[in-house]
C-alpha cells in the first residue's frame, strides 16, 4: 500500500504543479512573452512531446512537478542594472518585446499571480466534479447525523448506521436529552462513560429527509475501553449532509460549493501557518506543526486515504492544490508571492535597485526554503523511524 500511496501522491503533485505552471504560461502567452520550454517533471529529459506557439513541451524523468521557462524572466539585472556585456541566452536571443522583464509591471504581476490562481481554480473544478457526483455538502442547524460507524464498536453492536439522525438520548434515570449540537452531544456522551443510554433516531436520511423513528440502546465506553482513533460510541458525527440536485442545479450548486470549499481551505491553511509561526517565536508550543512530503505520505498511508476510492483521491488533490496556491502567495523570497512584492517595490524604490537586490534576495530565500524543507523532512523521517 505504501508504494501505491507514493505513486498516487507523486501523480497528484505533477498534476497540480503542471496546472500552476500552465497558469503562468497561458497568461504569459496572452501578453506575448516568449516561453522556450514547458517541462512536465524535472530533467533529465525523456522526450519532446509537442510544440505549441514556440514552446516545446517536454517530458522529464523526475516526477516531482514541472516548470516553465519564460524568456527574460531573470535578465533585468544583467540588461538594465549592470553595465556588462549581454549574455547570449534563450532570453536575450528572443525579440526584445517578447522578454518578460521588458513587459509593464501590471503584466508581470498578472503572469506571476496566474500560477497560484490556477491552483485555486483547479481546486474549485475538482470540488465541483466531486460534489456533482457525491452530492453537495450542506450544513443544517440543529441536526446531528452519523457519518461513520466503527466495526464492533458499541454503535455497531446497537445497529446504528451511517445516515441516521440522532434525536434524543435517554439515560438510566429516564431523563431525556435533545440532541441538537455535535460538540454538546460529545460532552454528554463523555459524562455518561461506562453507562447505558438509549438513542431515538430517524433512519435512512437523504437530502435532509428521513425515515421512521427507531430506538437503540448501547453502552458508552470508558477512556480505558476506547481503542485509539475511536470515540466512546465508535461513531463519527456531523451536522452536514451530501445533498443531490437535479438538472441545472447540479452545476450551479456544485460550482458554488466548490468555490466556497476552496476559500475555506485557503483560510484554514493560512490560519494554521500563522499558528505554527506564532508557536515558533512565542512562549507556547505551536498548536499546528508543519509536515513535508514524507510526513504527508506517511499520514496518508496510515489513514489508508487512497483506499477509499477516487472521491477521496481527488478531494485530497483539491486540498493540496489550494495549499500550493496559498504557499506561493506568501510574501517570501523564492516563491511567487516574493516576486510579486519585488515587482510592486519597483514603483517605490526604483526598478534598477530592485533588480540589483533581486538575485541575492531570491538566492537567500531559496536557500532558506530548501533548508526549512530539509529540516521538516528530516523531522518527518525521524518521527516515522521512532514511531513518534
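^ Assign residues to that structure.
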Amino acid at each position: 500500500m505504501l508504494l501505491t500511496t507514493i505513486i498516487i501522491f507523486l501523480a497528484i503533485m505533477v498534476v497540480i504543479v503542471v496546472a500552476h505552471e500552465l497558469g503562468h504560461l497561458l497568461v504569459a502567452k496572452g501578453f506575448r512573452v516568449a516561453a522556450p520550454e514547458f517541462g512536465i517533471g524535472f530533467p533529465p529529459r525523456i522526450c519532446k512531446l509537442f510544440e505549441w506557439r514556440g514552446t516545446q513541451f517536454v517530458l522529464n524523468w523526475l516526477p516531482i512537478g514541472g516548470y516553465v521557462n519564460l524568456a527574460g524572466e531573470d535578465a533585468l539585472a544583467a540588461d538594465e542594472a549592470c553595465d556588462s556585456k549581454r549574455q547570449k541566452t534563450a532570453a536575450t536571443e528572443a525579440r526584445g518585446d517578447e522578454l518578460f522583464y521588458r513587459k509593464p509591471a501590471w503584466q508581470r504581476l498578472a503572469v506571476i499571480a496566474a500560477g497560484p490562481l490556477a491552483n485555486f481554480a483547479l481546486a474549485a473544478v475538482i470540488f465541483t466534479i466531486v460534489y456533482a457526483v457525491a452530492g453537495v455538502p450542506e450544513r443544517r442547524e440543529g441536526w446531528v447525523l452519523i457519518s461513520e460507524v466503527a466495526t464492533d464498536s458499541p454503535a455497531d453492536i446497537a445497529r446504528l448506521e451511517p445516515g441516521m439522525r440522532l434525536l434524543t438520548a435517554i439515560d438510566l434515570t429516564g431523563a431525556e436529552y435533545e440532541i441538537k449540537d455535535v460538540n454538546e452531544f460529545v460532552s454528554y456522551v463523555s459524562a455518561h462513560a461506562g453507562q447505558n443510554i438509549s438513542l431515538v433516531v430517524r433512519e435512512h436520511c437523504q437530502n435532509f429527509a428521513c425515515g421512521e423513528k427507531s430506538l437503540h440502546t448501547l453502552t458508552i465506553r470508558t477512556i480505558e475501553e476506547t481503542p485509539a482513533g475511536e470515540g466512546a460510541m465508535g461513531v463519527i458525527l456531523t451536522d452536514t449532509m451530501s445533498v443531490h440536485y437535479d438538472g441545472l442545479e447540479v452545476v450551479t450548486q456544485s460550482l458554488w460549493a466548490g468555490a466556497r470549499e476552496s476559500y475555506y481551505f485557503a483560510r484554514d491553511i493560512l490560519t494554521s501557518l500563522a499558528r505554527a509561526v506564532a508557536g515558533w517565536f512565542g512562549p507556547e508550543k505551536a498548536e499546528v506543526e508543519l509536515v513535508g512530503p514524507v510526513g504527508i505520505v506517511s499520514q496518508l498511508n496510515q489513514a489508508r486515504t487512497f483506499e477509499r476510492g477516487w472521491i477521496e483521491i481527488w478531494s485530497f488533490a483539491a486540498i493540496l492544490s489550494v495549499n500550493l496556491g496559498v504557499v506561493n502567495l506568501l510574501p517570501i523570497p523564492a516563491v511567487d508571492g516574493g516576486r510579486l512584492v519585488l515587482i510592486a517595490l519597483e514603483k517605490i524604490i526604483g526598478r534598477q535597485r530592485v533588480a540589483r537586490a533581486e538575485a541575492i534576495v531570491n538566492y537567500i530565500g531559496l536557500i532558506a526554503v530548501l533548508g526549512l524543507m530539509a529540516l521538516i523532512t528530516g523531522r518527518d523521517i525521524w518521527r516515522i523511524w521512532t514511531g513518534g
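Confidence is low (pLDDT under 50) at residues 80-89.
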